[in-house]
Amino acid sequence: MKKPPQDLSQLLHQRGQLPNIAEKAELLMHLDYYVKQVLTGPVSEQLKVANFRQGVLVIETTTAAWAARINFQKTKVLQQLQAETLPMLSAIEVKVNPSLLMYATKAKENHNQITQAAATHIEALAEHAEGSLAIKLKRLAALASRSRQS
């Protein structure tokens, strides 16, 4: 007889190293969110909370210029974190990690546009289709004229 699969949340909160790792990852995610709320503006998009060890919060950023901007605001962030979230925080360390640029979110392109040629082909296909499929194809072809207007 086979055992049923265990729920992942049960595995994470059993014994061993995994519960500690999961707890630290959750803490780092919350700290990252909080630091980005304190450091508003474009600087918040260029940083990531990397670690918290022995009372030191490690923040990584993409360039030395961003690191300098974060260092200027470090005391403000330190005081707010100590007062509201982490009273055991003693220092903030800012490190430059250029590889963060690889993970930067890129603006998504709008792919909801249909060329006029594609619309013509879809309309021709709709002429030979029946029922609800024909209606849906005609609505899809109409997207080409809407994308031209905007």
Automatic annotation (TrEMBL):
InterPro entries: DciA-like. It holds the Pfam family DciA. It comes from the Bacteria. This is DUF721 domain-containing protein.
